[in-house]
Write a sequence for this structure.
């Protein structure tokens, strides 16, 4: 079996764990990541790693040329465009698609200062009702949208410490006092001290699950009386047996797939 027969999509910690399970099962595969950062996070997996974004046509071409039989979408829970494009490409090429989505912890925390909203725009509307210093722990992809939606606020961005992200921050008007470049996830103790240090009036985050340190981000906000806005996850496009919501579920799906080879 060629390495292209199984494609794992994603530069997340989830994708790395899936690759390690494929390694243990002796499966040849390719891990596709969008950025060099994702390539670095892949670590010492045995599979091939391809780096670079793919649009719909590129995905169809790749799946066809590599005679791919199984795609495992382990991209970030909020990477809607990637997942939707991948689903269309698999439908066109007739390739089996499974979606791995890490367990979320959204229901585990309830508090009067915890606001769960469905979109970036809704988060902006809630944030407008609080103080001027808004801490974003939502990544770098939507900085321009945050700047537009919260133009009257002082935005603080906690982002990855990589060159292209620093460039994005600068292009969107973030100065040195508004950029916190660091790589998580972080402990609750670290976050509590960090919120005090940056003097956040409100924190905006995502339902990133245990792997993304969701509770460790949110609980210190609530303990300190800081409002916390959580953007809930989009609904996955894949449903039924091919929606895998734990590493154990993926392990069972892998066994079923191996039995058909």
């Amino acid at each position: 079996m060629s390495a292209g027969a199984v494609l794992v999509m994603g530069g997340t910690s989830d994708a790395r764990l899936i690759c390690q399970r494929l390694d243990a099962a002796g499966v040849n595969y390719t891990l596709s990541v969008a950025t060099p950062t994702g390539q670095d996070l892949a670590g010492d997996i045995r599979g091939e790693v391809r780096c670079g974004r793919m649009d719909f046509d590129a995905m169809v071409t790749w799946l066809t040329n590599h005679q791919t039989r199984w795609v495992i979408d382990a991209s970030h829970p909020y990477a809607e465009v990637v997942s939707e494009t991948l689903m269309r490409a698999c439908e066109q090429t007739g390739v089996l698609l499974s979606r791995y989505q890490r367990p979320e912890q959204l229901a585990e925390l309830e508090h009067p200062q915890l606001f769960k909203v469905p979109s970036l725009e809704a988060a902006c509307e809630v944030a407008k009702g609080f103080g001027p210093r808004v801490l974003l722990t939502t990544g770098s992809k939507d900085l321009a949208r945050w700047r537009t939606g919260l133009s009257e606020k002082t935005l603080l961005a906690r982002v990855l410490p990589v060159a292209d992200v620093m460039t994005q921050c600068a292009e969107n008007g973030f100065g040195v006092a508004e950029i916190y470049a660091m790589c998580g996830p972080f402990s609750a103790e670290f976050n509590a001290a960090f919120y005090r240090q940056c003097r956040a009036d409100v924190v905006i985050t995502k339902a990133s699950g245990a792997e993304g340190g969701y509770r460790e981000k949110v609980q210190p906000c609530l303990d300190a009386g800081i409002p916390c806005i959580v953007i809930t996850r989009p609904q996955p496009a894949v449903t039924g047996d091919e929606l895998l919501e734990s590493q154990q579920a993926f392990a069972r799906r892998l066994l079923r797939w191996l039995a058909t080879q």
In short: The chain has a mean pLDDT of 93. The chain is about 40% helix and 20% strand. Residues 156 and 198 are 8 Å apart (CA to CA). The two ends are 10 Å apart (CA to CA).
